[in-house]
Structures are given as structure tokens and as C-alpha cells.
Protein 1
Amino acid sequence: MHDLLPVIAAGIVSGSAYALLALGIVIIFRSTDTVNFAIGDTATLGVFVSVTAMQAGVPVAVALLIAIAFAALFGVATERFLVRPLGAGHKSLFIALVVTIGLGLLIHASIGVIWGHRPITIPAIVPGTVNVAGVALTWNKVIATGIAIVAMVGVAWFFRFTTVGVAMRASAEDHFAARIVGIKPGRIAALAWALGCGLAAIAAFFLAMDTSANANLTISALFRAFAGVFLGGLTSMPGAAVGGFAIGILDNIAGRYLSANYRDTIVFAVIVAVLFIKPAGFLGAGRKERV
């Protein structure tokens, strides 16, 4: 256990992508009661659009912004044309869930048709490595973690101190009362989908730089992000972020000290045990809220 600190540091770095994806999932869920299973594929599609831009000579940093903008706009279009027409009610929410699953499969297949199935390497924003707590980490991972933390702080500030953010919180607390005072739920939902998918695109872009751009880019990360969401609480944005980082740390500890082959099993066994104790997650509300 002498190397526990470096293992935790590496886990925090890995968990930044999970935390961003988890935060995006919760923001969308709290605004429209929809669990967007297509969020990972939407982010991956944004990455591939940015890859095309880079192949045309666009700098990597600008390509990151393109990926975020594309994923955000795609998220808005998904909410406006696929989810909103389904209306409200438990039946519609279930249909919306199925729709996002189908959309994700469609995006996944489309990426293979348009860009092929060969992994595409994305150049690092800053090449090289740095030593953090005794662990040699690529600058990409360090920058990704920094951006993830800044993004989470920015989201927290947005929801607490801006008029639009307060309106989104009000709509989350009481959808009908918010409508009475003039808050338009359609605009709130569109903004939430843009924000959620944009955050997911940041995570996907740095995952692609760390490995490569491919159609399966976010499958494993999304799996862990959902684990983080359920660990922290489906209705809690801070809980989602903390849950994502916790999954990254737990994943690394299980792989380092127990068995790399069973790290998924170990991680999810711990989560199941936690959910038996607190089904709503550590920071989640005990009841489902319509935001």
C-alpha cells in the first residue's frame, strides 16, 4: 500500500472523464426527466466531426471547441425533435428512454459508415509527461483533469449565480410554478441538453487524445459514468461529479491491489452494496423530482 497516493492521483485523473459524463447525464435528467443513453455516442460524433476539421488543418484546441459546439447543438436538436414531441408522463418518459437508446445505436452505426472502423489518432494539445505525486502522467490527462474541474466549478457558478441558472433550478424544483412565473420550460430543456452534451464532448475529446477516436470511444467510460451517477445520486449534480471521481479512484485501487481482470466486477459489487444501504445514492434525493 506504499503507492496508494499515486494510485489515488491516477484515479482522480481517470475519474475526471467519468465525472463530466455523469454531470451531463444528471443535468439532462433534472431538466427533462430523460436518461439520455445517447449522450456518449453524441459526444463521440462531435469528436469525429472535430477530427474531420483537424484533417482540414484546424488546430487541436479549436477542434475541441468544434466538438463541444457540435455535440451541444446535436443535443438541442435531439431534445427538440425527438424527446419534446413525446410530451410528459411516465409512458412518454419510458418511450424517450428507448428513443435515446435507438439514437445511440444509429449514431454508432453512422460513425462506422462515414469514418470507418479504424481508430484515428488525435495529436496531444501539449505533448510529454509530468510527474504528479510520484506518477508519470501525460500532459493531456493533467489538462483534461484541470478542464473537467474548471467546467464543474463553472456549472456550479452558473446554476447558483446566473439568472438562467436560477431559472433552471426553479424549474427543477417545481415545473408548473416556474411556468406560472414566466419561465419557459422548452428553453430550459434545450439549454440543459446543450450543456449536458457539451460536457460529454469535453470528456470524449480527451479520451480520444488519450487513446484514439473510434466508434466505441465512450462505451466503457459511459458505463462507469452511470455507476458514478447512481453512486452519487441521479438527482444531484455535485453527487454525480463526486461519484464519477469516486469510480475512477475505486477502479484504479481495484486494478492495482486486487485484480485487473475483475476490476469491473469489484467496482460494481461495491456500488451495489452502497445502493443497498442508500438506494438514492449518497447525495441524491429520496424521491424523483421533475425539474
Note: The chain has eleven helices and two strands.
Protein 2
Amino acid sequence: MKTVQQLISGNKLTLHLIFSLSVLAGLWVGWYLMHLQGYRFENNWSTSIDCLFFLLCIYTGRWLFGRWYLRQELVRFIGYTLLSTLGLLILKWLFVRYVFNHPYAELGELGVAIMPFFLIGLIMGMLLKLIRATVQKELQDVQIKAEQKQSEFNLLQAQLSPHFLFNVLNNLYGISIDEHERIPALLLKLSNLLRYSVYSAKKPFVPLVDELDYIQNYIDFEQIRISDRLVLQTNMEPVSGPTIKIAPLVLIVFVENAFKHAKNTLVPQIHLSISLKIADNFICFAVSNSYQSEKQDDRLLDEGSGVGLANTLRRLELLYGNDYALKQEAEDGVYTVELRVKIK
């Protein structure tokens, strides 16, 4: 499997060069064998150009299939395939008329003669793209499953650290003495928190509304722990229904880090701001918190909170590819994280 992956993701220019030379060599061998059988071609130059046109058809079919068909834009795929086929035919016709000096060559007559040859090239390119996309998808699925297993393991061990649970239980004990009526609701939140942490990690994507409920439960407990020292501002766009999905436990990592690093400051009050909105088929999430640069290191390397940022970034790369963007910056005592992920 590693060898196949290296072939796919390795030096693309070298692979394309090897592939092109192999195709041309195969065509020239076939042409030579046909010549030995008595088949006569117009001339070597014309035949060589036909071989290059065949290679161009393969790459055209490959591009059309990847650009439109794999993105399930069938109408555009069919339309651009017809236009490309016509364009290749006209280009060949121009070659015949003005390069090979056949000024009376008819486009229709040439199309009947050369079109099967072009179609074979186009279909071959599409099939090659399909095979490549299938292999890539299989490899990606294997990687995602491996990462998912590792995430489950990390989550079970570290997502809700013993330290966090210890403090929560202590807070619950204190509340049970003076405000015992609040305990059932808090126990229900804790139960939901644990259930989501354990079971949601088994799915590649979960409804955004469930992820936000989980974050809210986490925030509620942090508010109990930090009490009056916390100044929290939230601006979360209401999300309803299961249609908007996101990778599980992606957002919570940044919320955890915001609380953790804000609490480590020496200021009497810590400020946190959390916002979320849906725009242009993307989930736009932002977290900012009080920050002291002399006390805190680069958070990209921090593995001490939950699944860890490195783990989360890896999952984002596997699950979203180029469909996500992460920005982190510290300015004027405020650390800000902005994450955009495409809706699944």
C-alpha cells in the first residue's frame, strides 16, 4: 500500500512523463506491427502527430472526468466533453489542412475517420482517472479509520482529564450543600458530556447542533469552576436540525485551549469570546481569550488539552483537505483562533 501511495503522491511530473512516453511507445510499436502486416500510413510525421493527439485525448478525458464528473456535475461534464471533442477534431482538421497541406480536407469526412481514435483516448483517460480516484479514496478511508481509532483512544484517555472531572465533582459537592436543586440538571449535563465524548468520536461527521450542545455543556462547567473571574461573551448563530454536519470534537479543542490559557494568566478577570456563524456553505468559528505571551508558548505544539491541536489539525487535513482554513494570532493581550470548515 505504501508503494501505491508513493506512486500517487510522489513526483507527479516524472510520473506523467513516464506515462506519456509509455503510451507513445505503445502506439509506435502498434503502428510498426501494423506496418509489418502491410497497413500503409500516410507518412511518419502524420502518424506521430496522431499519436500525440491520442495522448492529448487521454489527458483531456482525464481532466474532464476529474473536473466535472467526480464533482457530480453531469450536465457540465457532458457539455464540456462534447465541446472538447469538437475542439480536438477542429484542431486536427487545421493540422491536416495547413500543416500537412491538404487544403480540400473536409471536417465531416475527417471526423468519421478519426473520431473513434479520439473517443478511445478520451474514454481511456476517464477510466484512468476513475481508477486513480478510487484508489485514492480507498487510501484516504484507511487513513481516516486509523486516525479515528487513534482519536477514540486519545479521547477516552484525555478528552475529559481526571483533573477536570475531579474539579467538576468537587464543585457539584459544594453546590449540593447550598443549592442542591441545581444538582440534577448539572448531573445530566455531565452525563451528556461524557456520552458525547465517548460515542461521537466513532463517527466521521456529526450534526453541528450536537457539537454545539457539547460545547455549551463544557462551558457551563467551566463557568462553575472559574466563577466570577470569567467574563464570557458568546455569539452563536442558532443551528437546528441534523443537516449541517461537522467532524466531531473539532471545535471543542479550541474552546478548551482558550479556557486553559486564559486561566493561566495573572489578570484578575479573564475574558473569553466565542462566536459561530454559517456563511457561504462554511462554518465560521472564532474563539478569543486573555493571553500573556511571556507565560504561554506556541499553542500549535500543545498536546496537553484533550485530543491536542496536532491531532485535530491532522483530522482536519484528512476529513476536509482544502476545505478548511485555520488562523491563529496573538495581539494586545488577546489570543484569537478562527476556523472555517466546509459544511458536510
Note: The radius of gyration is 30 Å.
